[in-house]
Amino acid sequence: MIDTQLKDRIAIITGGNHGIGASTAKKYQENRAKTADKVVREIHENGGQAESFEIDLFNIQNIPVLVDKAEQVFGPVDILVNNAAYCNPDTFVSDEFVEEKTGLNVNTISVDDQEKHFAINTRSTSLLMKEFANRLIVRKSNWGRIINISTDWAECFPSSISYGASKMAMEAYSRAAAVELGKYGVTVNIVSPGPTQTGWMSPEIEETQAKHCPLGRVGQPEDIADVIVFLASQQARWVTGQRLFVGGGNRIV
Q: Which of 33, 61, 125, 151 has its CA 20 to 30 A from that of 20?
C-alpha cells in the first residue's frame, strides 16, 4: 500500500458538506453526505479528526476567519483544497434547446449572477490561496499543497457560461501561484472533473452524460477525491502547475 505521508498534515477543504468535498475529507482520513455534521461524525467514527465551520465565502472578510478557525483547532494548515463553488446555469440568449439538451433550467446572464460566480469560484479561491501561502511563508514551513477544483468545460461551457468563465479565471490564478510559490515548497494543481453525480443529475441526465464517457459511466465523488488525495501526497511532490482531467475520458471524443 502506498504511504501518502499525510499523517498529521492539516487540511482545509471548502465545500466539504457534500459531494466531492465530503468524499475528499473522508478519503484524506483513511457516500456522500447532506450535512457537514454528518461528514465530521463519520470521520470521527473512523478514528480521524475533523471539524466543520459554516463560512460565507462571498464575504471576503471571512477568508482569514476560516483559516483562523482551522488553526485554533488543529494548528498550522498544510493543505488547501478549494472545492466550494457556485453554479447557476446561464446563457447569452434564451433558447429552449439548451434546456432540452441539459435538462436544467437556464437563465440568461445577469450582473448579479455573474458577480456570484466570480465571487465564489474565482475571488474567494484566489484570496484563500494568498492567505494560506502568506501564513506558510511566515512560519517557514517549506511544504504545502494547494488543489483547486475546476471543470473539464472551463474553456467553453455553453449553458453555464459564467460558471465556466469563473473556473477558467481560477485556473489562471492557480498556474501563476504554482510559479510564484514553488520556491516556498508549495505545489499548486487543478483537478477538472467530468460529469460527476453529486446529487444533481436525474437518471435521464446521468444516462445521457455516461454515453460521452469512454468508461461508460459518470463520475462519483470518490473518483475525484482519490485524485485530490494523490495531489496532496508525497507521490505528487514533483507535480505542480498542472491540470488533471478526471472524467473517465470525457471530452476525448
A: 61
